Amino acid sequence: MGIMRPIANCRSVGAHIGSYRRVYQSILILLLKVADVINTKIYKAVYELAEKLMKAAEKEDREAFDSLYAELGAICIEHENTDKDHPEQWETLADFTEELDDALVMYEKALHKAEVANSKDHLSSIGFSMATLQVELGQEEAAIKHLKNAKISANKIEDKDLKAEIDELLEKLTAK
């Protein structure tokens, strides 16, 4: 798996390097939607770190990736349970977490924060990301549960691509 797993797992992308633009666009769209809710300084830091993490992964620069990941983790921990805590930080950290089980823990944390904030965009994207990982881990029942919840949340969002991806994966899993 290596350094490419985080990018491969970001919602709506494959493991191919050509997909980095789509990851970048997805992160940009989500971050722009939350820019007015999340602290601007933190938003900018998370956005810049995500961009640098993608570049480090693309170059397979392990040292830079690990350093940037630690910096992102420190931002999350520093603001946890404060008024600056936001699901976006945790979702981004989970997107770049290499160990699948650890990534699921981060997504759970992000999902809880999104539930508290009633953020439909985040509930949808986090649920989809979790389901994607769960499929990879052979946890199809859990994946279906998260996809069904993500689909409900997605009814209230504008991201048609995400809605289609949720529907497509849910259909694939329930058709078996």
From TrEMBL:
EC number in record: 3.6.1.-
Keyword annotations from UniProtKB, A to Z: ATP-binding, Helicase, Hydrolase, Nucleotide-binding
Record InterPro entries: TPR-like_helical_dom_sf
Protein name as catalogued: Replicative DNA helicase
GO MF, one annotated term: helicase activity
